[in-house]
Every structure is written in C-alpha cells, then in structure tokens.
Amino acid sequence: MNLKGRNFLKLLDYTPEEILYLVDLAAELKEKKKQGILTLDMHKGKNVALIFEKTSTRTRCSFEVAAHDLGIGTTYLDPSGSQIGKKESIADTARVLGSMYEGIEYRGFGQEIVEELAKYAGVPVWNGLTNEFHPTQMLADVLTIKEKLGRIKGVKLTYMGDARYNMGNSLMVVCAKLGMHFTACTTKKYFPDAALVKECEEIAKETGATITLTEDVEAGTRGADVIYTDVWVSMGEPDSIWEERIRELSPYQVNSKVMENARPEAIFMHCLPAFHDLKTKIGKEMGEKFGITEMEVTDEVFESSQSVVFEEAENRMHTIKAVMAATL
Length: 328
What we know:
Number of helices: 13
Largest sheet: 5 strands, parallel
Strand content: 5-15%
Shape: globular
Distance between the termini: 13 Å
Order of helices and strands: HEHEHEHEHEHEHEHEHHEHHH
Strand order of the largest sheet: 7-6-5-8-9
Helix content: 40-55%
Number of strands: 9
Oligomer: single chain
C-alpha cells in the first residue's frame, strides 16, 4: 500500500484498510526493534520538525525515538520556540518549514491549525494531538488491543468520562472505521458532538460497528472488552473546572466494580498521564482541596493485571514510526 506523501491529520481521512496497514506495519517495526534489527536506512538523511504548542512526554519521546530509529533528524520546537500564529502566519510557517524539512509534526490546539499547515507545507504533516482529534494515539490503542485480545473487529470498547474532545471523538471514529462497538458512558453533557456521532453512525453501517451513548454505568460497561478513560480536565483548561468535573464525572470513575461488570478478560486503557494517586503535584493539590485520593481511575485498577497502559504507551512510538515510515 502506497501512502507516500500523505498527511496524517485524522482517521476520518483514512480507509479501514489503510488504518490496518499502519497497525500491521507498526507491529512489524516493533518486532524488528525487539530483535535488534536496525531500520536506520529507511529514511536516512531526512529531517522533520516537531511543533509542540502543548508539551507531552509520550508524544515527544515517541517521535524523537521513532525518527532516530529510521535515520531521521529532528528539530523540537516547544511553545516558546516557534512564531507560528504569533509573528508569522500558519501558512508562512508551513512554507518555511516545508522548504527545510521532509515532514512536520504538530501538537497543539484547533484542528484547523494542523489542516492549514498541511495545506501549505508541501510535505507530510502529522497530527500529534489537537483539541478535536488524536490519531496517533488511536493507532497505538488498536495495536495494543490486537496484541492483548487477539482481534480488532467486534471488540466492545467503553469510554468513560468526558467524551466531547479528542479522545472520545477519536475512539468513536476508529471504532466506526474498524467494525468495533463504541460506547460513550457519561452524562449527556459530556457526549460527543452530535454531527460527528451521525457521521460515525453512517461509517458504522458499512463496517458492522455500533455507536452507543449512555448515562448508565452498569449497562454501558456490561460485557465490555476494553474499558478506557482519560483525565477529567484537559491541558489548557482553567483550574476552576476541576470542582465541576469531579462532581459530575465521579460516577464514571473506573473502579473494581466497573471492571467486574466487564468481561473477565477485559483490559483497562488510558492514554496517560493518569490521576490514580496523589504522587503528582496536581494530584496532591486536588486531593487536599477536594478530599479525594483518586480521580478517573482507582489505583487498584491502574496497577492491576488488567491494566495495559504502559504497553499502550510504548506502542505510541512503534505506531508513530509506522506513520513516518509510510508517509515520508
């Protein structure tokens, strides 16, 4: 399959076959790395720019290690290291970087920014995360599900928490594309965008997927193969949001009762970082302020044998490597 020169902005742009090709390529590259087989010649001498308007441990490390393994040089531009949208327009930044680099990664705010970069860059642009979509995380999640459950099609995935933004949106899209059964289990206030739900329902008609939105925790998690959650407050949101989210989303915390209601072999997934204890600065502050020790997931579940969060995190690197290898 030839994906050379393609942007990777959202999974809605890709066919099920193309998505599965990238997952399979990631598995192949992962196996080579485990065996010590070098892939430095795949794109030796090429360079990519990594624009991070929102910082991230996993995304930055994944792109840098993946690029190194492919023989690619990287330039990391942190929130203060680029004039994008400030002193220089997005279009101008895209054309400048596109003349110097063979690829550009963007992690930041609105989807329209990464779309405009792709319009003017003239080289592949990859979405490391926007407010609306997180496609590289989805590839890592699908690879992890395939490794742990031995299948993709027909898997029942339940997402608990705030399903309005990039994680809820992207999980719903990838489930629709790959014939998986997606459930958003949360209050109506936090359901995904109605227009995107409708679009995914149309895709699902072709793939055998189903899209379910429910406020009922017992019904929403019953028989699930995957229980997935994310932090309740996203990067960049004000601190004042915490009290509201904790109050409204606490009924949708992933705990032992939720996992017992899922299938016996169900796995727990989280894109990280997770507030499962008080060992972080923010976690400690929220614990002291609201009298809680855990938020979206209990420490018991996070540290359980059903939790695959660290294998999932590792797979970010392998799947990002596959995206770069395939599109450059």
